[in-house]
């Protein structure tokens, strides 16, 4: 369960900005849930609005970059340049470190993990936890870069010697968490690493194969229900899965005169890979069965099929899905459907996404604390703020969307006069 995410000095974000999924609208809690320790009320989702180039996508990039560091920094060789871009429009921040910090609740423990990094090294890294039977935050470890160029790791007494042994083998480009989580005595760290790997998902983690495998593993009913509720007129999915036929592939490559070097590489890459043949099933005139290849389905239908398996996994297992511009290729009503199934979920599933879909900005679809904005100030710094900072009517007599488009809440583009207006002096 995602509690909050904080980023500072990264891309268009100069000062620290925090996205929170803690419910703060005390009058409306229908789209939220209690954590198992009954201490937090968390939202099933938040939606981020803002103009193009305001920084919405940069927020998603920041979250994804943090996950990438956790999962992959263990492979960073010493001296590797890190892919970090600070806020470049200020002479001071260009030379300062970038901060990522995240809070989440996992297996009845609340964690706060973060790190400071520049493009050369990890400057600082910390992990704190809070068990369900206490409000006190405890340190699991804290790793700092000393003035004389050495890493210092302080840790709690439990596993202290293990942490120190790992610290000596962690280079400046590696996260201590990534290095330590693979150790044999890292029982306390593995849940944190696994949360990033298995629970925090992005659109890059979405694979249409998840839908196909869900159908083939006995979840066809749930997948079809998801698609049919979205009114996609799909009666059934006909999926055949088999390993790639190497002989058939060789024959095709010979016909296309593929160079031998590439043939060997392609055959090696498809070793053990599964080939899917998929057709959608529709009911035609007089309930006649008609099957169609996916290539004849619309972009929106293909996107819903692609997302179905992952969304089902997120809903059933209480995961977190983060997506940039979810509405791409989707009809507004399909977007409504996706928001509704998360808001009405009986699990701890959560969704975070950016959008321009103003039709979602109504009290029937979203609570005020589910709506966030990103806007740039006069210094071109992205700022993140909640709709809870405003006091709109909540009884349907005031259109949140219209007021947003009229600039009452910020986060909209400034449209310059047209060329004709400029020429006429208007």
Low-pLDDT windows of residues: none
Structural class: alpha+beta
Mean pLDDT across every amino acid position: 87
Which bin fits the share of residues in helices?
A: 25-40%
Shape: globular
Number of strands: 18
Distance between the termini: 52 Å
CA radius of gyration = 25 Å
Percent of residues in beta strands?
A: 25-35%
Describe this protein's structure.
- This protein has eleven helices and 18 strands.
- The protein has 426 residues and is of the alpha+beta class.
- Helix 5 packs across helix 8 (299-317).
- It is globular.
- The model has no long low-confidence stretch (mean pLDDT 87).
Provide a concise account of the structure shown.
The chain is an alpha+beta fold and 426 residues long. It contains eleven helices and 18 strands.
Topology, please?
Layout: E1 2-8, E2 17-20, E3 32-34, E4 41-43, E5 45-50, H1 56-72, E6 98-106, E7 109-117, E8 122-131, E9 138-145, E10 151-155, H2 160-167, H3 176-180, H4 190-199, E11 200-202, H5 208-229, E12 236-243, H6 246-255, H7 260-269, E13 274-283, E14 289-293, H8 299-317, E15 320-323, H9 332-343, E16 350-354, E17 371-376, E18 382-386, H10 400-405, H11 419-424
Parallel strand pairs: 5-16, 5-17, 11-15, 15-16
Antiparallel strand pairs: 1-2, 1-6, 3-4, 6-7, 7-8, 8-9, 9-10, 12-13, 13-14, 17-18
